[in-house]
Design a protein that fits this description.
Strands 1-8-5-4-2-3 form a six-stranded parallel β-sheet, with helices on both faces. A two-stranded antiparallel ribbon has the order 6-7. It folds into two domains: 174 residues, 3-Layer(aba) Sandwich (Rossmann fold), CATH 3.40.50; 201 residues, Dehydroquinate synthase-like - alpha domain (Dehydroquinate synthase-like, alpha domain), CATH 1.20.1090. It has 15 helices and eight strands. By secondary structure, it is of the alpha/beta class. 56% of the residues are buried.
């Protein structure tokens, strides 16, 4: 049985492809063209959003500054973005950007700097608001400063879509936003900038991409585009992730993992997300040091078990490269759960929620956060099975 049987042909789909992306070894050299385009739009100062090290160690920063200098564009460096960025970082950066006269944002890094940069770009246009206003959905932005995304990982897909995530630490909230105004104007996916990713991070970001398509292909809003991109994503990650783990400098492997991440980001931009992301955000909201991709991996098998009865046709095709021989029948739910868990172990992920510091007494708090964190209700509503508290509790419990 093919995945087409899992598509509701009466569901009118909106197919979205919102960013202009340069992809390939050496794509960072397109920064000269991008700087020229910014200058032509009247941009004479930018703020660069990044973490503490990778922007320099990859060589990206040297190319960026050379291009900006050539086109007489001043730049402000904000290199305080952490994994799972927080609202106060965004507010600090907005203050610096406005005081310095920045008119655009260049984000250099993985999902965290790109998402933080998207948030700064919005708030530069709404100086009377702060980041908590934005992520508690107190207003709906319709404009943002131009965004340039230079991607240094192959997992989040944020360089290709309209999503962003920032944590509100005081409330353990990790909301997600999605607005058309934060599609990057230009993005760069250069696999040569990704060869320094550590083994663990290489795996975690790739598993993030796999989660994106498992969810994007199985929401109640899925469509053939999201599913087709999903099938290709899983095939590419299954083939090239072991190669990148074995040889981090394998540019072919990094290229196709980067491409997989890109199309996965586009897949969920069209199909949206559901359980895995909605339930992971409380995990790293409570424990900001938990890597997002690891949190997703821990709960993924339990999520697949829950949704397989409603999404078996699609998942049988989608997961064939890592769990072969599936038919889509609901009776395979435990087989699929175990198969996905075995694949995760094969790429080096065998942790449980207990291994990363959670205990049974934490479950109710996590369930509460899944239902009260702003924005996660939309993800839960997109799940292929009803997202009751009992279902959410069971996923967390099974992941302990």
């Amino acid at each position: 049985m093919s995945w087409e049987k899992g598509i509701n042909i009466e569901n009118v789909s909106e197919i979205i492809c919102g960013s202009h992306i340069f992809m390939g070894v050496g794509a960072i050299k397109k920064m000269d063209f991008i700087a020229e385009q910014l200058k032509n739009k009247g941009v004479d100062c930018v703020i660069a959003m990044t973490g503490k090290r990778a922007y320099e160690s990859t060589g990206a920063w040297a190319v960026v500054t050379e291009a900006l200098d050539k086109h007489n564009i001043k730049y402000i460096l904000y290199n305080e973005v952490t994994p799972n960025p927080e609202t106060h970082q965004v507010d600090d950066a907005v203050k610096v950007a406005l005081e310095g006269g920045a008119k655009a944002v260049i984000s250099i890094g993985g999902g965290s700097p790109i998402d933080a940069g998207k948030s700064v770009a919005i708030l530069m246009e709404y100086p009377d608001k702060n980041c908590q206003d934005l992520y508690e959905m107190n207003f709906a932005p319709e404009k943002a400063a131009p965004i340039i995304a230079i991607n240094l990982t192959h997992g989040t897909g944020s360089e290709a879509n309209r999503f962003a995530v920032v944590t509100i630490p005081e409330k353990n909230y990790k909301p997600a936003i999605a607005y058309d105004c934060i599609y990057p104007m230009y993005s760069i996916d250069d696999p040569a900038l990704m060869t320094g990713l550590p083994k663990g991070q290489t795996t975690y970001v790739s598993v993030d991409a796999v989660n994106h398509v498992i969810e994007g292909a199985t929401t109640v809003l899925n469509n053939p585009f999201a599913v087709t991109l999903g099938n290709e994503t899983v095939k590419l990650v299954a083939k090239y992730l072991p190669k990148a783990i074995e040889n981090p400098e394998d540019l072919e492997a990094r290229y196709f993992l980067s491409y997989a991440s890109l199309i996965a980001g586009t897949s969920f931009d069209n199909g949206l997300l559901h359980f895995t992301h909605a339930l992971e955000h409380p995990l790293s909201g409570v424990k900001p040091d938990l890597t997002h991709g690891l949190g997703l991996a821990i709960i993924l098998p339990a999520v697949i078990k829950v949704i397989y009865k409603n999404s078996g046709y699609i998942l049988a095709d989608l997961l064939a490269p890592i769990v072969p021989g599936l038919t889509g029948d609901a009776s395979e739910a435990e087989k699929v759960e175990n198969g996905v868990r075995q694949w995760l172990v094969s790429v080096g992920i065998d942790e449980t929620l207990k291994d990363v510091g959670f205990v049974e007494e934490d479950i109710e708090k996590l369930v509460d956060l899944a239902f009260t964190t702003p924005g996660l209700d939309g993800l839960l509503a997109s799940a292929p099975v009803e997202a009751t508290r009992e279902v959410v509790r069971q996923i967390y419990t099974d992941s302990l």
